[in-house]
User: Fold these one by one.
Assistant:
Number 1:
Amino acid sequence: MKLIVIGPRGKMGKLITQVAAEREDMELVAGVAPRGRDYIGTDLGQVAMVGRNLNVPVVDDLESVIDSCDVIIDFSTKEMAMEVVDCAVRHKKALVCGTTGFSEEEKKKFQDAAAHIPMLYAANTSKLVNIMNKLLEIVTSSVGDEADIEILEMHDQWKKDAPSGTSKEMGEIMAQAMGKKLDDIAVYGRHGSSPREKGTIGYHSLRAGNIPSSHTVYFGFMGERLEITHHSYNWECFARGACDCAAYLAGKEPGFYTIKDVLNL
């Protein structure tokens, strides 16, 4: 399958390019960078620090290269992602998007796009994070109404959105298991006098140094607690998962797919 990577100089785009370059089932055909970058026109292998030239260009115009690909992987910015999904729909190309920080209206664009293209949106492409999500669903279905649920998530100092898209997805999964909506029960941090309200999900976001990603969900009871935690040591697990998502989409019919489909969860 032929692949285009959006944002090949970013922390995720770089790793996705490196992983895809080593896969026998993938051929990189272009990298697409934001306009005005000084590396436009150079080789994708150099830009993504693959260690060798790939004889593939980095361009700033997706329209100029999109017809050469089967699937696009986009882990860029939410502004760029809006342009990418529109272009993918126009050219009927499959899209994997792992960018986060979207409003509900912006998220709807991906749902709408699925009527025309194979569309896979994943706030987190790690295999183990998504297995953790399954565990959270099981636990919450059993004890959600009894437990005090708190989410602690940690990321690097450059993380733009808070809480993380992954922790929001975790909250949505648990809220759904309790028959509720996350917007109705989420509490973001605490200050001053704020006793805990039963049935809520608490969020706490830490941003420091170069912490890659860490999520812990606490189920608190009187005299005991259950913790479910995922730590990533670097971002390679997300890059490998993103490439697995792209491989899954190749040849699929239009529709909205999730990483659960990829992992058969």
Number 2:
Amino acid sequence: MELATLERLNACRRARVAAALITDIGSGDASVIAEGDELDGVLGEAVASAFRSGRSSVVELDGARYFLNVYLPPPDIVVIGAVHISQVLAKMAALAGFGVRIIDPRTAFATPERFAGINLVTDWPADALKDKPLDTYTALVAVTHDPKIDDFPIAEALRRGCFYVGALGSRRTHASRLDRLRAEGFTDKALARINGPVGLPIGAASPAEIAVAILAQIIEALRTRDIILRKGEVQ
């Protein structure tokens, strides 16, 4: 592998940007396509599909065969609120291969005993997300029911382009949430990205069932998200 190719892959890794190493099987020539770069046609569709699935593949185009080796950032789930749902969701998400971070300034709920082995942050979201910002390979789930805690990270998730944004609450609660976010300047199109009530509509009732519905919806969002290949550079 040429040094410039390796440096581009490393730049993508540092920036948590998906990248595909495209190798011409016949000639051995290789290049890197990052999510956000411009690539049309059959090859562009194949790369977009690989970015969704995380699977490498072989593509035939104009008599040539190309091997797509895909490098995806590890997906993360940030949960705002150390509640019963979060306890179950954190364990299941880790088993499914997600990095998990629980953020809740309420130390009565956010205790090491309740979240053993989980990355638990007892700062306010505005401070916690300053140290480790959200990105496009992060899912944000807000479950405190407290606007003072939930609203900022939801807004930040929309600004940062998180692949999933979900918020717990009734339809009335969610409607009030949307009104507050509109007052901050968010459009209806942006607000439509929020899954509220959170989770797939499977009739979930218990905290464990709600956690299952949330994780399933997150996985669905990750594997079906829009991949836009356009001109761009990873610095």
